[in-house]
Write a structure and sequence with these properties.
Blueprint lengths: L1 E6 L2 E6 L2 H6 L1 H11 L3 E3 L2 E3 L4 H17 L3 H14 L3 E6 L9 E4 L18 H11 L6 E3 L2 E7 L6 E7 L2 H20 L1
Parallel strand pairs: 1-5
Antiparallel strand pairs: 1-2, 3-4, 5-6, 7-8, 8-9
Length: about 190
């Protein structure tokens, strides 16, 4: 099978052997089980990712594999996408770090896709301003020893304090997002 990938102005056709699709089934099931726990798409935590959101996340991993010339990872990510959505015609990978801007074009089969994207309300200017201010008060997730953390800026003392001890990065990202949401509420009061 073939997957057509668009990166900026370049179009690539990735050939994925049918045999790989069959042999990697348990690996793909493990990927789905991991994503069932929720995924981070850009700045948004998605608890129950739908097919398109899963493909966007895997597309980001595919982009990394292509950039680092990790052919094995790239082949596996392309195979996952084709195994879960064989009617993909083309994927437009976002290169700005906004994973949720990756677009997926499906072949015109006359059949509606069997997934649904949750309707997201466009954030207001005030919400975007609050989020921007809150993001400046919560650091990115980092690994320290065996645990993942992030830091919080104390608005009164202007000092950073480590927070959010988690065993895996995904859990730490969830905690970080909760901290950002909390800061947004505090700033809104």
């Amino acid at each position: 099978m073939e997957l057509n990938v668009v990166i900026d102005e370049d179009i690539f056709t990735l050939n994925v052997p049918d045999q790989l699709l069959q042999q990697a089934g348990s690996f793909f099931d493990k990927m789905d089980a991991d994503m069932d726990q929720g995924i981070q798409l850009s700045r948004q935590w998605v608890e129950n990712p739908q097919l398109v959101q899963r493909l966007q996340l895997v597309g980001d991993k595919l982009l990394t594999a292509l950039e680092t010339e990790d052919h094995q990872l790239g082949r596996m990510m392309a195979a996952y996408m084709l195994s879960r959505a064989p009617d993909i015609e083309r994927i437009y990978l976002d290169t700005t770090g906004e994973i949720d801007n990756t677009e997926i074009q499906f072949k015109n089969t006359g059949i509606e896709p069997t997934f649904s994207m949750p309707m997201m309300q466009e954030p207001s200017g005030q919400d975007m301003e609050l989020r921007s201010r809150a993001e400046k008060m919560v650091s990115s997730v980092f690994k320290q020893g065996r645990l993942y953390h992030f830091s919080l800026l104390d608005p009164e003392t202007q000092e950073w304090a480590t927070a959010g001890a988690a065993k895996d990065q995904q859990q730490a990202e969830t905690l970080r997002e909760q901290a950002v949401q909390q800061r947004m509420r505090e700033l809104d009061d």
